[in-house]
Amino acid sequence: MKKTECIIVGSGIAGITLAWELHRRNISFIIISQPTLSQASLLAPGICNPIVFKRITPSWNVSELILHMQNFYPYVENHLKIRLFQQIQIAHILSTPHEEKLWQQKKEWYPRFLGDIVEYTPEKWPCLKYPIKCGIVPNAYKLNVADYIHHSIEFFKSLQSFSAQTFHYDALVINDNTIEYNNISAQYIIFCEGHLIKQNPFFSFIQLKPAKGEILEIQSEKNLLPDHTILHKNINIIPIENNRYLLGSNYEWKHLNEIPTPSIQQQFLNAFENIFQTNYQIIGHYAGIRPAADRRPILGSHPKIKNMFVFNGLGTKGVMLAPFSAQLLANFILHDIPIPQELSVERFMR
What's the CA gap between 13 and 193, in Å, rounded? Predict the structure, then answer.
């Protein structure tokens, strides 16, 4: 039987980030995952936006989250020898004088996160249909999530720390001090399953409100945006490379499947064509299901099985939340440092 300190179930943003956090601490682990089971992390555009545009206020705990990101993702890049993480700016379209006035007011309150209002014209961005005014978010970031997950899995495979298989709950043997699964014996097991946790019999008490999200990839005939600028209004328009762009995303709470919706595709294209005039072709249309509970991570131990843990609930801000959350969970597992109540799984046990 192979011995390790931790079994991690799941290889999305949560599972991979926790694995790197354990790797930093020289804690052994094995990831058990069938990466094809859920696409939500693989389809995430990876935007780290410090602002909630609905209220034009900073996101929860944003200063600490950014600090952890700035330390964590370069550590991963250094090990993988590839570039994954970059600073960008978000240009948020302001459609009315009232929106401009509100932005200027909020900029005085949050000067670190809100920048100037800039006007872009068809002379500067030739494919624009008309001039637009944008509030600039200068300190945003972007992670190439698909590469982060893919190259991390390959790295962990090279360390014999990844097993590509579907996890079967009934094969789990729980002892007082060990967890056994097939031929693996570990001290701890951590479930990082995203929306699939609803199938987990050990954490069925967690009340998620999963949301379907979709994203459209297009190839434009011409360059639309500077490489490090994301345009935001009703959708995000995100440059990838070589005049390819991602359009999205959305929330759908009723029809929870990973099948792209034609009406959503048209909605994205209508929003895009309202801003830009260019020839383009559709490269792909993708859908995934995000876990969502109360917009906070879900961290902690099972109420009765103390060597069983959960890491879930990252949602749309997963790239920003994951490094901070992984550190909190690792500190809790290894050093019994309490998890803040607002992030603890205990909030679902009341």
Answer: 10
Rg (CA), the chain: 21
Q: Is 147 exposed, middle or buried (0-12, 13-18, 19+ CB in 10 A)?
A: middle
Q: Is residue 36 very low, low, confident or very high in pLDDT (cuts 50, 70, 90)?
A: low
For the residues 36-58, what does the mean pLDDT come to? 80
Query: Which residue from 323, 321, 264 is spatially nearest to 288, judged by alpha carbons?
Result: 264
d(CA 16, CA 191): 12
Over the stretch 269-313, which tens digit does the pLDDT of each residue have? 999 999 999 999 999 998 887 776 547 899 999 999 999 999 998
CA–CA gap between residue 92 and residue 33 (Å, rounded): 38
Model confidence, pTM = 0.93
**Domains of the chain (ranges, CATH numbers):** 2-44+146-206+294-348 (3.50.50.60), 47-139+210-290 (3.30.9.10)
Q: What share of the chain is helix, strand, coil (3-state, %, to 5)?
A: 35, 30, 35
For the beta carbon of residue 123, count every other beta carbon within 10 angstroms: 8
Q: How far apart are CA 323 and CA 325, in angstroms?
A: 5
User: How many residues are listed for the chain in this entry?
Assistant: 350
Give strand pairing partners of 194.
Answer: none
pLDDT 10s digits, 224-248: 998 799 999 988 999 988 999 999 8
